[in-house]
Write a structure and sequence with these properties.
62 residues; alpha+beta
Amino acid sequence: MYGPEWVSDSTRHQKISDASTVAALDAITTKYERKGKTVEITGLNEASAERHGRLSGELPSH
């Protein structure tokens, strides 16, 4: 497999404002995890972390 074994997405200057952002992060996470990679999303503020935790894995994929 190509690419790093561990992927980190720092969202320090971004916030999760709606379900489409959660769905996009889920798609990225799923893509890398299917290739055996570890994915970590860091830097979410409290509101964004709560929204991500509540919606992650609950949205239909496209």
